[in-house]
Design a protein that fits this description.
By secondary structure, the protein is α+β, with helices and mostly antiparallel strands. Helix content is about 25%, strand content about 25%. It contains 15 helices and 25 strands. α8 packs antiparallel against α10, α13 runs parallel beside α15 and α14 packs antiparallel against α15. It is globular. The chain starts with a strand and ends in an 8-residue tail after the last strand.
């Protein structure tokens, strides 16, 4: 596995990446005690208390682990739900609700569940909960956008109350990494049954085993979580965590500076010095598993023509964007797979910036006079707005007149899920660390819409490569397959990969033990706040 180094900035644990991510292997030799467990020390920490305020730029879409595949929702859900396994601060797989596991053969895994765990509704966590959760996410009637991560699971069998057998349809190398994903969060079977009967709504009323539970969600305003007093690892130090939705970055920074927030997300590079000069906080950053891209609706004219998409891609100067907007925090993307993800290869031909060639290709496609197009951008996302303005200017050089449409996050997701757009700026974080998640969701025909293929790209050869890569057990062969996928994507240009950015936050000096992982999730289990802030904001 790839190793990470840690550095302390502004009281937070910040992770910087070093080395290449290797394939996820059987971590059954990891001892349960490597993961924080409930003990006297944890219960003493709970007395520290306090409410941590996290100012974020986007609201939650839903709180169902089998629901929306967006980052804002994942941030909150991962502190409510837990999976059988989890990623630690080094992105290593560790035991969670499964204290150990064993791969019996290429198709069969046994998981030995953690005992004496309860959901926040009092339902015991056991084999029945695992079966109910995995059956729900793969149920076609549920139509979960996360189903693609688990649809290779053929059987889930209870060998006893605390031993579960998972049988896959074919050998699936990244199974453990997928089970560590937010979509693998275990849900109370009582809540699942109640929802099926129409008496519960997991979108707004989550029931997990995590360190926090939902207190209140005021849509468009804030999400408030309170400490799970019966958390099986021992109650966390914080009394509560408030995710306050504040679209304007300048307002979020002011909240940190004025002591109204402990953590503020999505700080653009140009404003890092403003945060660093604050008396109350500092910048913390981590190299991410993210890829930001310009997406084209492959079903809408003229973007259904690959020559048009290639022409537009060639007319965008990614180096100018990375140098001018990201100021050293991001790396130019040569393809759709993040350079730290298993499956990345630099042995591909990127789309080169060439305005003359772009003009010629656009003319050959029948658009010598250019055309008009609309570019969707999330409102409040200042970095994407800056990128949109640069792209608007660059595409005007080949006669393409771009109008920028600012749109609220949930509405943007709806538009892209339904192919109701022309161009869009989006990002994708390969949270599992394996290219299967970063490519199957974005480029497989079966993933059109909510699972992630919002460009509605279709290529039978790519589909076959992605299917084969899921079944392949040889790491080198998998890397070759993902290299071919990346080259097809560059050649067909359903999207233009632009940059692998870092995740930057502003964090109060009063906060300690706050962990931001490379896939963007905030781990609050070890977080404490001191000084006046401990009384809550």
């Amino acid at each position: 596995m790839r190793k990470f180094t840690q550095r302390i900035v502004g009281g937070a644990v910040v992770l910087s990446l070093a080395g290449a991510l290797a394939a996820c292997t059987d971590d059954s030799d990891v001892e349960p005690e490597d993961v924080p467990a409930g003990d006297d020390e944890g219960e003493e920490a709970a007395a520290d208390g306090g409410n941590i305020v996290i100012a974020v730029d986007s609201d939650v879409v839903d709180l169902d682990p089998h629901g929306s595949n967006d980052t804002s929702s994942t941030h909150v859900r991962t502190n409510i739900y837990e999976g059988l396994v989890e990623h630690d601060a080094d992105m290593e797989l560790q035991p969670a609700l499964a204290e150990d596991w064993e791969q019996i053969d290429e198709y069969t895994w046994e998981f030995y569940l953690t005992e004496d765990v309860e959901f926040t509704d009092g339902t015991p966590f056991n084999a029945d909960a695992v079966i109910a959760t995995l059956e729900r996410v793969t149920d076609p009637e549920e139509a979960s956008p996360r189903a693609f991560m688990y649809d290779m699971i053929e059987e889930v069998n209870a060998l006893d109350d605390y031993t579960v057998e998972i049988v896959t349809e074919y050998p699936f190398a990244p199974l453990l990494a997928h089970l560590a994903h937010d979509g693998g969060g275990m849900i109370s079977p009582t809540a699942i049954e109640a929802e099926a009967a129409g008496d519960h709504n997991l979108d707004i009323d989550p029931v997990g085993t995590g360190p926090f539970e939902l207190d209140n969600w005021s849509q468009g305003n804030e999400v408030v979580l309170t400490r799970n007093e019966d958390y099986w690892r021992g109650p966390v130090a914080l009394d509560s965590a408030t995710y306050r939705i504040v679209e304007e970055q300048s307002t979020r920074i002011a909240m940190l500076d004025q002591g109204e927030a402990h953590v503020v997300n999505s700080i653009e590079p140009a404003n890092t010095s403003q945060v660093e000069n604050s008396e109350n906080g500092d910048i913390a950053s981590v190299e991410s598993l993210r890829m930001d891209y310009l997406g084209f609706n492959n079903t809408a004219e003229p973007f259904d023509d690959p020559d048009v998409r290639r022409a537009l891609s060639m007319a965008v100067n990614k180096a100018e964007i990375v140098e001018g907007i990201f100021e050293g925090f991001g790396l130019e993307a040569i393809g759709p797979v993040n350079y730290q993800v298993f499956g990345f290869s630099d042995d591909i031909d990127p789309i080169e910036y060439d305005v003359d060639a772009a003009e010629e290709l656009l003319a050959d496609a029948g658009y010598e006079d250019g055309f008009e197009a609309e570019l969707l951008v999330e409102s409040g996302n200042s970095i994407n707005m800056q990128m949109a303005e640069v792209i608007q200017d660059q595409l005007s050089e080949i006669g393409v007149s771009v109008s920028i449409q600012l749109i609220e996050w949930a509405a943007l997701l709806d538009a892209t899920d339904e192919a109701n757009y022309e161009m869009v700026l989006l990002g994708w974080t390969t949270v599992t660390g394996d290219a299967d998640y970063g490519t199957y969701a974005l480029f497989h025909t079966d993933s059109h819409g909510p699972p992630g293929n919002n460009t509605f790209y279709t290529n039978e050869e790519v589909d076959q490569l992605l299917d084969d890569a899921r079944r392949e057990t040889d790491d080198d062969a998998r890397i070759d397959m993902y290299r071919e996928v990346a080259q097809h994507v560059n050649d067909d240009a359903p999207m233009l990969p632009i940059v692998h950015d870092e995740f930057r936050i502003g964090i109060s000096h009063d906060v300690e033990g706050f962990i931001q992982l490379p896939h963007g999730v905030y781990d609050l289990r070890e977080t404490t706040i001191s000084g006046e802030a401990s009384g809550g904001y």
